[in-house]
Amino acid sequence: MPEDERYQKLAEKIMMGNSKIIPRLLEMIAPDREADLLLALPATAGQAAEKLGIDEPAAQEMLDTLFRKGLVFKKSKPEGVEYRFCRDFMQFHDASILWPEAPREYLDLWQEYMETEWPAFAEIVDKLLPKPVARVVPVAESVDARQQILAFEDVREIVEKESPIAVVNCTCRLTAHKCDRPVEICLQVGKAGAYTIDRGSGREIDKEEALRLLRQAEEAGLIHVTMNKTSGFHFICNCCDDCCITFPMLIEKRLKLCDPSRYAAVVDAELCDGCGECLERCYFGALAEAEGGVVAVEQEECMGCGLCQVVCPAGALSLVTVREVDYIPT
C-alpha cells in the first residue's frame, strides 16, 4: 500500500479525511510498518501478527511502542489484551502530543494544524455537540460562603476522591508555547491517571502535590477545566487564554466548546477600592471599570472561574450561583 494512502486511511478513521495536516502528523509519528499495524486494529498481538504475517513478539513490540506514542489503547479481554487505534481526533491530539519522545518538529506541526485548520473544524464541533464536553470549575475559595459548592464543582474534592493522580504537560502550552505559564501542571485522575502512569506520559503524584499544583495554577492565572459531568472525571486541565485549544475559539468566535461553571462573579461596591488588579485576570471581558472606579461585572460574559477573586486585595469579589444544579449533565 502506498505510504500516502496508509496515512489518509488512518486520518479517515478519526474522521479527519479532509485534513491536509493530520495525515502528515500520522506519517511523522508512525513509520510505514507501524501504520500497517494500526490499520489492522482492533486486534490482540497474536491476531495482528497473523494479519501482517509477522511473528507475535515483533507485533507486541510495535504495539508497545504505539501505546507509548499515544496511538493505541488497550483493553483486557478473554482472548488477551486487545489494542485499538485512537477513537477520534481529540484522543489523537491529547495522547500523541504527550508522546514522551515527541520531537519538536512534531509538536510544531501540531501547532501549524491548530493555527490553520482547527478554527474551521472547531466550528463544526460547535454545531455537532449538543453540550460541550468540558466545563470551568471555580476556585473553591471564591464562592460566596452562603452558596453551596458541590463536590463535582470543586477541584480539591475531585483530587481527594479520585486515584491514582498523575501530572502531565499541558498539551496546548507544549505545542503553542505562547506564554510563560507553567507547563507541567495538568492532572489526569482515575482511569486516565492509571493510563498515564502505565504509558509513561506523566508522573504519579500524591494528593498533597496535586493540591499544591492547583493552587499554583490559580496564582498563575490558569483556569480549571474538567469533564462536563457530575462523576467519572478523567482530567483537570489548567488553561490559559494564549495557548488553549478552546478558550480563543470561545473568546474570538463565540464557539461553545467549554461551558461556564454554575457561578458568576459579583462585586461588593463598598469594599472595592478600584485597584484594577482583577481586570487583567479576566480572559472573557466580564470585568470593567465603572463609574467611580468601582469594578462592574457583565455576568453574561463571566465563565465563573473565580480567578478575579484570587487577586482582589479588598475581598470585594466573590461568586454566586446563577445556574441550577441540573445545568451540569449527569
Describe it for me?
Helix content is 39%, strand content 17%. It is elongated and about 75 Å long. It has 330 residues and is of the alpha+beta class. The protein has helices at 3-13, 22-29, 32-39, 45-52, 56-69, 89-97, 104-116, 118-128, 155-161, 171-176, 190-199, 207-219, 247-253, 307-310; strands spanning 72-77, 80-85, 134-137, 165-169, 184-189, 203-205, 223-227, 235-239, 263-267, 287-289, 295-297, 317-321. The mean pLDDT is 94. Helix 2 runs antiparallel to helix 7 (104-116).
Brief summary of the model shown:
The protein is built from 14 helices and twelve strands. It has helices at 3-13, 22-29, 32-39, 45-52, 56-69, 89-97, 104-116, 118-128, 155-161, 171-176, 190-199, 207-219, 247-253, 307-310; strands spanning 72-77, 80-85, 134-137, 165-169, 184-189, 203-205, 223-227, 235-239, 263-267, 287-289, 295-297, 317-321. The N and C termini lie far apart (45 Å).
Number of helices: 14
Order of helices and strands: HHHHHEEHHHEHEHEHEHEEHEEEHE
Radius of gyration, rounded? 22 Å
Helix content: 25-40%
Classify the fold: give the CATH topology of the largest domain: Alpha-Beta Plaits
**N→C terminal distance:** 45 Å
- The neighbouring-strand order within the major sheet is 3-7-8-5-4-6
Which helices and strands occur, and which strands form pairs?
Layout: H1 3-13, H2 22-29, H3 32-39, H4 45-52, H5 56-69, E1 72-77, E2 80-85, H6 89-97, H7 104-116, H8 118-128, E3 134-137, H9 155-161, E4 165-169, H10 171-176, E5 184-189, H11 190-199, E6 203-205, H12 207-219, E7 223-227, E8 235-239, H13 247-253, E9 263-267, E10 287-289, E11 295-297, H14 307-310, E12 317-321
Antiparallel strand pairs: 1-2, 3-7, 4-5, 4-6, 5-8, 7-8, 9-12, 10-11
Helix pairs in contact: 1-2, 1-3, 2-7, 4-5, 9-12
